[in-house]
Design goal:
Length: 374
């Protein structure tokens, strides 16, 4: 195989065309990485993990940590995931998958050791900006080497012309985490478990609208992480922070989701539409309906996400959007706003960390870099 030169050509001087090209959440989708459930284990009981769940759930997680997910959780999620992949392929989307990894294997640094978690959510560990894939410096120790499952894909994209970057790998020592942290109650000033010791961020705390990115500060994304990305991207991009009223924020895609040029879906529980960045003043703000309740007790107990996964949709293009079949009120709302919702099942993916947007990484959308805000 010919090697790629630093100027985007191969060693024979031929110009390479990157297989990676994605600037927004809505340009026509052509290729996507979809996560896997094989080898998944319950995440560690590290405080940065348990700070996002109720105390009773944290105690339960302490007992389950490091054990493989039981078949009662894996099998229904796998069936829905297979159907989701079939749907994507029927829509003409190329689907790529990470390698299978046994996350029970332990690993260590000079400071700590951990087992893994899973590769269900590629959206968390990699951020696509144009023709570049950025491996993110995640704050959960059990996700430290998660991107290694994607290295076969990343090397292939790189050889074919994509840019491949890794943010500084964090130390994840005690200095990064507030000692004896507890989430703030309603009415208290916001506080986060991560300090500013070093840059950390999950890619899923960012969404893209061309030259403008939107981010929420969260339990896994600190200001140093946001600033690292701002400097890395340079003056061609702008990063705007979305204020979240969530007491335990983690990931923007159940809080604020751009769906099309000039249209953004917001969570009325977490976002005050009157306090959005000024650059969005000409956009239509679509307020998400209350999620339909989940009746399954197993899902209520094991979901790693809040009820607002109804917002975790995947745009196929400016009109077509894949959304959870169970959340009928969201389907009706999308239709009333002029979209064409495509119902699909992925409700049982919640114990592994998300839904359609979380479970995917759109590496190629047919579009160019533009500005969509004032």
């Amino acid at each position: 195989m010919k090697a790629a030169a630093s100027d985007g050509t191969d060693t024979a001087g031929e110009r390479l065309v990157s297989p990676v090209n994605s600037h927004t959440e809505w340009d026509p989708l052509e290729e996507v990485v979809v996560g896997r459930l094989e080898g998944a284990t319950f995440p560690s009981s590290h405080p940065v993990v348990t700070s996002n769940v109720p105390p009773w759930a944290a105690r339960l997680q302490g007992f389950a940590s490091g054990f493989k997910y039981p078949s009662v959780l894996v099998e229904p999620a796998q069936r829905e995931l297979d159907e989701f992949i079939t749907l994507l392929e029927s829509l003409g989307v190329t689907v790529t998958r990470p390698d299978v990894v046994d996350h029970k294997e332990r690993f260590s640094t000079p400071h700590w050791s951990s087992h893994g978690f899973c590769t269900a959510c590629p959206r968390d560990s990699m951020l696509v900006i144009g023709d570049e894939i950025i491996e993110t410096p995640m704050a959960w120790p059990c996700r430290y080497f998660e991107t290694h499952a994607y290295r076969t894909i990343l090397k292939d994209y790189f050889r074919r012309g994509a840019r491949w970057t890794a943010a500084p790998r964090p130390e994840l020592t005690d200095a990064l985490f507030e000692k004896d942290f507890s989430p703030p109650d309603e009415g208290e000033p916001m506080r986060y478990i991560t300090t500013e010791f070093e840059p950390v961020f999950d890619a899923a705390d960012f969404v893209r609208a061309g030259r403008d990115l939107f981010v929420t500060r969260s339990s896994v994304t600190n200001r140093m992480g946001i600033e690292w990305l701002r400097r890395h991207l340079g003056p061609g991009y702008r990063i705007h922070e979305i204020e979240s009223r969530c007491r335990t924020p983690m990931h923007i895609d159940t809080t604020f989701m751009p769906l099309a040029p000039g249209k953004v879906l917001v969570n009325p529980e977490y976002v005050d539409p009157d306090r959005l960045p000024d650059v969005l003043r000409s956009w239509d703000v679509l307020v998400a309906p209350e999620p339909n309740p989940i009746d399954e007790n197993v899902l209520k107990l094991t979901s790693m996400c809040g009820k607002w996964l109804s917002m975790n949709v995947l745009m196929i293009n400016e009109r077509q959007v894949i959304a959870e079949r169970h959340h009928t009120d969201m389907l009706r709302a999308l239709e009333s706003w002029g979209f064409e919702p495509i119902p699909c099942d992925l409700l049982h993916y919640a114990p592994f960390g998300g839904s359609f947007h979380c479970a995917t990484l759109d590496v190629r959308r047919r579009g160019t870099l533009e500005s969509y805000v004032d």
